[in-house]
Amino acid sequence: MEKSLFRYIWTHSRRDQLIVCAVVLASLPFYFMSLDLPRQIVNQAIQGEAFRDGNATAPFLHLSYDWPKWLGGGTLEIFEGFQVGRLGLLLGLSTLFLFFVVVNGAFKYWINVAKGILGERMLRRMRFDLFSMVLRFTPDALRTVKSSETATIIKDEVEPIGGFIGDAFITPIFLGMQAITALVFIMIQNVWLGLIALAVIAVQFTIIPRLRRELLRLGKQRQLESRQLAGRIAEVQDGIEVVHVHNAYNWERAEIGHRLFNLFSVRLKIYNRKFFVKSLNNFLAQLTPFFFYAIGGYFALRGTLDIGQLVAVIGAYRELPPPLKELIDWDQQRLDVQVKYDQVTQHFAEERLVPLHEARDAADEDVPLTGPLVAEEIRVAGIHGDMIIEGGAFAIDLPASVALISNGGAAAGMLARIIARRTSEFSGQIRIGEHDLMQLPVSTVGRRIAYAGVDPILFPGSIRDNLVYGLRSKPLGRIEEEKREMDRRIAEAIRTGNPLESIADQWVDYERIGARDESDLDRILLDLLDRIGMGDTIYLFGLAGRIDPERHMALAERVVEARHRLRETFQANGMADLVEPFDPDLYNSQATIAENLLFGVPISDEFKGRNLAENGQFRSAIDRAGLTDDLVRMGLQIAETMTEIFEGLPPGHSLFEQFSFIGAEELSEFASILRRHARGEGNLKREDRTRLLALPLAYIEARHRLGLLDGQLMARIVEARGRVREVLAKSDSEGVEFYDPEQFCAAAPLRDNLLFGRVSYQVANARIRVTEAVAAVVRELDLLEDIERIGLDYQVGTAGRLLSPQERASVNLVRCLVKRPDILVIDGAFAPFDESRSQQMLELLLELLDQQSLFMVLPNDRQAGSFDVQLRFRDGQIITEKTAAPAPRSARPEPDAAQRVAGEVA
Q1: What is the pLDDT of residues 793-830, one digit of tens each?
Q2: How far apart are CA 339 and CA 122, in angstroms?
Q3: Domain ranges of the chain
Q4: Strand 371-381 relative to strand 387-398: parallel, antiparallel, unpaired?
Q5: Alpha helix segments (H runs only) across 352-451
Q6: pLDDT tens digits, residue range 486-513?
């Protein structure tokens, strides 16, 4: 970042600043004329000086200027004007005054809008520049820089800087020229009044900035305190599990309370000094009118200053304090923003950034990292000054599989990070062929080297998004978009230094991994996931996924076909009792009462859970069907039974999960409702009836077995189903997608669309047997790959928290494999897996990376026999051992086509 804020602003916005400044200068003549018009209205029209010699008319728009005697005197004639009467002159001058008010307002509007746009463009540029530097943080800097503080800087702390950028040059010029114009006008009317105004201005500009210096120091302290507060809150959130485990709630509350008190104290000091300075500034601003009234009135009584001039002077001074005050505020803002900018540049200091070594041409970027890997005099020091590696050296011919055997030490992991270019904190040299590893362009490193560490990092999005992340290095094709919008986007990107590429462009390099298109890429991803041991998980994710039947029309039709085939399978194999299908004319005893009434899947929240009991349309439908009172009575029975069952049980007891009607925290509330009901049903409030109504809506007779549903009530619920559908259809409500045996339900997951019913709670192992039957039909109808593709759309959540540790590690490994690196470094990526699974995955990696290099950190040498080379670490030295009679890499079994697509380098 440029060290000087004003140099940064001028470098990137010089053209726009000059254009706005030119408009500011063009507005000054109109502003000056608007100051002189009040004098002309009072003297010429109202007091009649223009008609002093008995003339019935006077010139209007007579443009001339009388120079004051102390400037030499004389008259400058510009335009003779039009002859008008006294009333015409008054109206004409007043209209002219209004015209100049509109013109000056238009100038101010344009200037302010231009400043705002300029500031927003520069803010966009600055944020993008800072984010670009975030991408260049060295791995070592990332261990000390808090991500929350960096995000706070880019999001919040540069916001005031962006707001100031538009004012940096324009505001002092605009306000300064306005103040000078008003001051010159006062001087022209009376030099003594002008000198008085100048003296007060000089006092303001001398005292006020000095008093505000302490505000700068306090503002800097406030900014640091706020940033540290944000960082600490982020730390607590990231480590919230430790807080829960160790019951550290009170300590964390006290610690944050202490920080908030310190921040409050600083802000209190700022308010005290800020408003003292503001009061003093306002006093000085009101002091000048006192002198004008007193001294100007004295001059008017003596006849050396006419009334019109005095009115014009007072009017001109009324225009003087606002720009002066804003200029003082601008100076304060300048100092404050400079402090913020200095802190930003310190946070993004050059020593924290990776130098940009760009490839000389495209051919350099395509050079494979093969040949002799030679390390000389490698020295790595620990954080306490101890030597982890001292004078280490080795030579390996790549491609090769290399085991880095740690034996409990840190040297193996450190060397793995060096080879993967994840750290530069070492001395010595490592060369691959003729290339210095540390001098390779970052684009080459990202293309040719992959690293899988102990803590895989996944971004929010789908599994597919994370798997192809390494293939999105640059856009390879442009998606068609509306030309006007595209031109506007590109023009703004050029003006703000942002990238011209759109995220809607084609970013995935299919050719790089041997795929023809998106469908072929999915096939490769699914093959790798299956071989890594995640195929069943992706299948389950797919069954839980949803599709748009309009986009996937063929798949939706095949799912409906599979639904019928599954029903036939159940019937033929005597398994009909495993799943109770949805039938428009029958009550489904394995589903909730709410689901039986709606006979569909809620889309909006107002039809989900307990919100359904409060929904006006639904209540209207069951009122017409005469079900409300029956359901409220059922709710009373459920509440009474639950309070009896749960009485005395601690929160978290397994019964609360089994009977999911009432939470432990709600028991007391429903006990109060029951007491009110005991005094008479009429005492129940509408809120109580709504809460009671919500209970039976979640009731499943086959699961909860409270004996509350009989055949008659079930029939009435089925009858009310049509009334509910009729009411919702008339209201054009799109909150529920209704079931249709012959249609795909887009709101329901694939699993529910296949079953189109509910698994029985009354048959042992029903879910397992249904799952096997579904899998058989899916294979029979060749739906497996389509369902797994839907599974690739599964959202991983923030930092991949919706996946298990094993799933996160698997996704991370496939992400590394799919980009076909020349060198894959594994450092703790197998930690979530047991030894048997780790051995299987190691064998798979050795098979897939037959023509590439694999460096893997091993805790011991039990698995080292599978590698070509073993690196051991002893007394700071690196000892190279070749495995006895390793199988030649070229002689290993030739992988099939799918393996070559996933593993070979073209």
Answers
A1: 999 988 888 999 999 999 999 999 998 899 999 998 99
A2: 18
A3: 5-351, 398-423+439-473+803-903
A4: antiparallel
A5: 362-365, 411-419, 442-448
A6: 778 788 888 888 888 777 777 888 887 8
Q: Is 397 exposed, middle or buried (0-12, 13-18, 19+ CB in 10 A)?
A: middle
How far out from the chain centre does Cα 436 lie?
Answer: 38
Q: Kindly report, residue by residue over 574-594, the tens digit of the pLDDT.
A: 888 889 999 999 999 999 999
- pLDDT category, 373, cuts 50, 70, 90? very high
pLDDT in tens, 249-274: 788 888 888 888 888 888 888 778 77
- Listed in sequence order, the residues at least 6 apart from 82 whose beta carbon sits closer than 8 Å to its beta carbon are 59, 60, 61
* Burial of residue 576, with CB atoms counted within 10 A of its CB: 0-12 exposed, 13-18 middle, 19 or more buried: middle
Q: How far apart are CA 758 and CA 750, in angstroms?
A: 13
Phi, psi of 276 (to 5 degrees): -65, -45
Number of Cβ atoms within 10 Å of the Cβ of 578: 20
- State in words which class domain 398-423+439-473+803-903 has: alpha beta
**Which pTM was predicted?**
0.72
Count CB-CB contacts under 10 A for residue 683.
12
Q: Which residues pair with 757 in a beta bridge?
A: 581
> How does 449-462 read in b/e, with b if 16+ C-beta sit within 10 Å?
bbbbbeebebeeeb
**DSSP state string for 100-115:** HHHHHHHHHHHHHHHH
Rounded CA separation 269/548 (Å) = 59
Answer positive or negative: Cα dihedral of 297, 302, 305, 311: positive
CA distance 456 to 26: 60
Q: Which CATH code for domain 5-351?
A: 1.20.1560.10
The pLDDT of residue 721 is above 70: yes
